[in-house]
Amino acid sequence: MSTSDTTHRRGRQREIVFAALTLLAAILFGLFVIPAGVTQPASVKHLPLSPVFLPYLLTIAVGVFALVHLAEALFAPHIPDEDAQAPDPHPRWPLRLAALTGLLLIYLLLPETLGMLLTAILVTIVLMAMGGERRPQILLGVGIAVPLVVYLFFVHVAQVPMPEGLFEGWF
Amino acid sequence: MWENIATGFTLFLTVQNILAITVGVCLGVTVGAIPGLTATMAVALALPFTFALDPVTGILLLVGVYKGGVFGGSITAILIRAPGTPAAACTLLDGYPLAQKGQAGKAMNMALYASCIADFLSNLSLIFFASMIAGLALAFGPPEYFWLICFSLTVVISISGSSLTKGLISGLLGLLTSTIGLDLVYGTQRFTFDNFNLMAGVSYIPLLIGLFALPEAIDFYMRRIKPHVVKPADRSRVTRDEFRRSLPAILRGSFIGVIIGTIPGAGATAAAFLSYGEARRTSKSPETFGKGNIEGVAASEAGNNGVAGATLIPLLALGIPGDVVTAVILGAFMLQGLTPGPLMFQDNITIIYAIFIGIMLSSLVLFGSGKLAIRYFAKIADIPRHILLPIVLLFCVFGSYAVQSQMFDVGVMLAFGVLGYLMMKINMAAAPFLMGFILGPLFEDNLRRSFLISEDIGIFFRSPICWIFIAITLFSLFVGVRREVRSTRSKRRALREGQA
User: Fold this and answer.
1) What ipTM does the predicted assembly reach?
2) One of this protein's Pfam families, by short name (chain A) (predicted)?
3) d(CA A11, CA A80)
4) How far apart are CA A171 and CA A98, in angstroms?
């Protein structure tokens, strides 16, 4: 089997999986999430006025287009996606994914405690190091100066009250 | 009339006024270029400075900030795929691929030319057709708005990327996301699950930043490190041929921007996408859109800047603000003891003319400051990606937080960043999602308001405006689908020939 055939087969499989999962998600959303997530008033005069009307309509439409996509993926000849990027994952991508997830969680959870500035400095330096920067003057210079300038801009020019954390009263 | 214009000109021609426009445009370009800080925020920030200024000077400062902000958003959209303002989200579709090819300078220059031309035409329409167009906009009721939005939604076909069905699913998911929050008619909760942060719906700016800027950063760390994915920005200019080719898209985009701008609530983002869709529809090479077509940049920038002047039409002619920015400008008028509307044309016509003259000058100032900004901002593209992307992430977090000063919005940005990354990996276009999300509330609101007025479905066919929009919606759908079918057929033919 040629490389081209393998690529086509994989491409087709990917589209089938996508369409099947979308269809399944639409069914689950319609059956469970909409009834649980939308409060239906007792007296709705007209169906389009109901809060559930549009969510159901859109969910059905998603399901229908997922079916169309599934049919396309199953029966039509697969056209290689022009926009498809060649997979070129980093050799240690699972580790990097875990590190990136951790850093994004730090950005989300720590500003209230550490302050937005310190959190930003920490994450910026680690991300630059993850990207391959090894020069300490760049890591510390850029990693401290840029968050500081951006922080001061937001706090003093844009008048946004950022979480101060450990630096309360400093800036 | 000429006497009034002469008096207006005298009133305008002061150092303070020219300085106010210059400072305003420069401030707007800078703030607009920062992801998370919108033109609305920039105008709101500048508002307190107008208290101590003359009415004309104060209004011109705000108008300058607004116009600069609308253009400024395109700079970072092109350079780092992080639209500074929502209206620039469409510019990145072709602007960023051009930057990746090392043609950031060309993309930004085209964005500037399109912005200035559209701005100028929009200003002219403001001056000559203010009262007429505002009158037309007044004829729009909920059914007419509903059909206008249906027509705008057809643009999803043009921005669907390589798969129409995936693009449509993306647009529908955007519409579905827009239903989160309190129901507009009954006030009941929809998908909030008792989380008070979601009562007002998902915030727009964090969603935008997450969907477009964050996936680039995530993708960078998941792939083999390439220090310079974006080639150094050249100082390339737009060639005469490229400008000539893009001129119809610019003029069409300006026209669309002017029409959309006069309709309160429609907005610059919708105008940009609509203009882009039209440019792609009428182009001889629609398949190149989304891959670095300079006409795409021209069309989207013409669309969003065409709105800038026109949105002042209902404000000045009728006293109705067309969007949030003009609502802030209306506040500035009130603070100065002026009430925009028909009476202002009677009582303060010289002030109106002075403002008009200043607004015309703002296009020139925008050109000058834009050229200067391009020269300096272009250097951003020369920064190595491993240094630039952590800074982009920094702006994403700060910008998202700044919207309502709450960490919840940072969480929203991160969530949509992950969604955007997954969409990128399965080659599902994010632009239709954004379009659906923007137009969703208007779509539902006008649908339900129409039913509240009359339970008869005939209300949707009540006026010639409805019929015009129905016709162009059907036409747009037909042309879009036919083009997609033809494109698929030609790809299949090429595939068969390649295999044979």
Assistant:
1) 0.91
2) TctB
3) 7
4) 33
